[in-house]
Design a protein that fits this description.
The complex is a heterotrimer. Chain A is mostly helical. Chain A is built from six helices and two strands. The radius of gyration of chain A is 20 Å and the shape is elongated. Chain C is an all-alpha fold. The chains are: A mainly alpha, B alpha/beta, C mainly alpha. The interface between A and C is large, with 72 and 86 residues. Bound molecules: sodium ion (2 copies).
Amino acid sequence: MNTTAQDAHTDAAGDLPHTAFSAATDRAIRFTGEAASWLWPLLMLVIVVQVAMRYLLGRGSIMFEELQWHIYGVGFLIGLAYTLQTDGHVRVDVLAERWSRRTRAIIEIIGIVALLLPFAVAVIIEGSKLAHTAYLLNEVSPAPGGLPYRWVIKAAVPFGFMLLTLAALARLSRCTALVLGFPRPVPPR
Amino acid sequence: EAQGRSDRVRWSVPIAFGSNLKALGDTLPWVAQQLQQSSDGKIRFEIFEPGKLVPGVEIFDAVSTGKTDAGYSWMGYEQGKVPASVLFGAVPFGMEPWEFMAWMYFGGGNELLREVYAPHRVVPIFCGVISPEAAGWFRFELTSLDQIKGLKIRAAGLGGRVLQKLGASVTVLPGSELFQALEKGVLDATEFSLPSVDEQLGFYKVAKFYYLPGWHQPYTAQYLYVKQDAWEGLAPAARAQIETACTAGVTIALAKSEALQGETLRRFEKEGVKAVRLDDEILRALRTASEEVIAEESAKNELFRKVHESQQAFIAGYENWKQLGYLPRGWK
Amino acid sequence: MEAFEIIVTGLLVLFILLLFTGFPIAWILGGLSVAFTGLGILLSNHFDVDTFLLDAWSDFAIIADRIWAQVGNWVLVALPMFVFMGQMLDRSGVAEKMMHNFVRAFGRMRGGLALTVVLIGVLLAASTGIVGASVVLLAMMSIPVMQQHRYSRELASGVVAASGTLGILIPPSIMLVLMADQLSLPVGDLFMGALMPGLLLGGLYMAYVIIIANLKPDLAPIDENQPPLDWRAVLNVVLAVLPALALILAVLGTIFFGIATPTEASGVGAFGATLLAAANGRLTLTVLREACRATMHTTAFIFAIFLGATAFSLVMRSLGGDEFIADLLKGLPFEPTGVVIFILLIAFLLGFFLDWLEITLIMLPLVAPVVQALGFDMVWFVVIFAVCLQTSFLTPPVGFSLFYLKGVCPPGFTIMHIYRGVIPFVLLQAAAVTACFYWQELVLWLPRQVYGG
Ligand code: NA
Ligand code: NA
């Protein structure tokens, strides 16, 4: 009965070999992803406390309200890379299922280089500007009693996409290892 | 800009309020239409409804970072970055709309406005002001100051801070949840906008006490934010045309919003809504708290203090005329 | 055709072709938006081609503000919370016990499990407006059980996708709020107006399940080894269903009694499910960690699609996609009923390729004044329009419910099973639209009762 996104997915490019680079990167991505996944029960507690305070004591807090979307924003942005690493992003695999491992790896290489990386890099560049401006202006929440240091949460956008870029490069190296034998495949840990 | 000053203008202009909202949202579309006609089609604004390019609250950012040439918004969404902005948008217990116009055009307001926005590479043009908002929709009758304590109300900005000082449980619930929250009682009350806009959104169906006046927003001003480079690239004629059209926009917005409210309040009566004036005791407590909040902001930010002082000086100079020059309200 | 119209068509066609390469949907959307920005800049600056508004990088740079707006979209907090709730129900054994007992109860009734899915789907729809949350939650709870009972994959995925999509129609509904905003209609009237059509759809789904399960028993086999249903079994069913039902009612109750907003109620539901797990003695550190990880994966794949889609729609809009569709509408016939049918048809067809948000933003402001001028009731029109757009979640190739479902289905479910599975449900959607079209009271009666004329 326990079905989750990660075990639901057969790897699109079959069992890809690991590379030294991918092994190290994947470890780091897994670590951040797993650490960040504890944000979800935290978010749950923040909501419950906020509801209880407002309903029982008539004392809601805008800080708690903003904390909710701050937590969820950081959570899903870090999750992008974590889910890429376990190949959990949704694919339409009607045709791909019938193709060889090699063909699928080639498509994956083209997709990562031509589609994913340009998008990720564009968001990193523009998102960093957004965070930088917030930092320069010492931006705070416009809501009464909202959270300060807006640049921190805005920086989560480029940060999440930097992790995504790393995860994508790791996967790229695994695909090229399969197709071109470069970088050299290493045995899984 | 490289070709020198241009009299041809094609700008993408996101707006903060839907153009279906009378006086609040339809001013810029009117201004754009006037500009296109008077310039013989040389000045064209491509208007983007809220959310099509960016949400209303992000318009200032989009213009100041040069991603759009212009935008139209209430001034104050950027108060987290530009604290003084809110003084140009709406001030609790601040000026009345025409008093604000007088300060903007002849009391030094416009000069201060340009000064506040110059570091952000934005040229704001005063382009609409509307009648006072309402204090809000309440699910029950508000008879004493004590009821403000623990009152679950949605309110933004400085007004929200004032209510917090009086012990209210203030929230900034997203607009999409507002109606249901008020209907089911997650909220006791919410402020939103002008009576005519509130009517368009249907709050009268779920809350039957409507309190006035909108102490938190006696005037509500909107601006055409223009990217500085784009403004500097304009030929003098185009600039003059845009400024003139916006001045007309100020007039039209105020005239339209004044014209609509009386009829709206009468329709509320028919729907079983009691439109009531806030109790003097409550108003006085709100005023004291407002002064505290504004004093706190002035202490934190130099430009905020400077603009506020200019407004206060103007109000002081105008006070005797305001008292003597008009028939007293309610005089028969 | 204008140059920009050719480019927009190219963008859409290329998107659909690339979908079938099997590369993740989210990155196809995002990547194409960057590529077409580049193309737009190149064509307009060097080849003097009219690319509408897309002629500089700054036109795309606004993506950062749009992604930031997603982060600040508080309402979407409900998505991870409902996913977490599902994880907890699943791992605590509550969901499993419930579904197995439903099998006991409905063991001799053909399609019983699928009927349960529709029922839970309607209850979920009343507590959230986030389709991704409902689809994923329903799928987690029911697909493995239906698979165990040898339901056809098509029927299983069709019923989950369709029932999960009811959330966008049955209030609370973000879609109706946005439409109310755009047209200055009272949102309460739209909420009440959509309730009956939403329930009607639930009823149609159930009727279909019962009929097809009896016509083609292979699709939803019954367990021949089931012991007969005695009162003891009934008691067990009630006991097993009680916790989960109580939880769902608690979520609905916090909304109904004004304790929490629908967004907050999702967190309350997650908390309740965690308590249930603890009460069952299943709340170990491992279970909690696994639930957290799985929530992370599911949330992230859905948001990746959101982010890709916001980039894609930005570029489509800058390339004049809105004007393109506006031109389509110029063919409006003049006969009043024909106008409405024509509009609904276009909305339905656009739904194959675009999502509800885009269609609403583009079409509604254009067609609403026309429909109003013809004297139709706007609440009625908007609700039917909403049912049409709800269908866009289900229509292949670009149906977001189908993608969410694909993301959480067990191995062995391909997108083709899902595509085939929703076809009957899309036809039921059309039936509901037709019903509301001919019996306006289906929409208009309830708002009148609740809020008066
Ligand atoms: Na719903
Ligand atoms: Na579709």
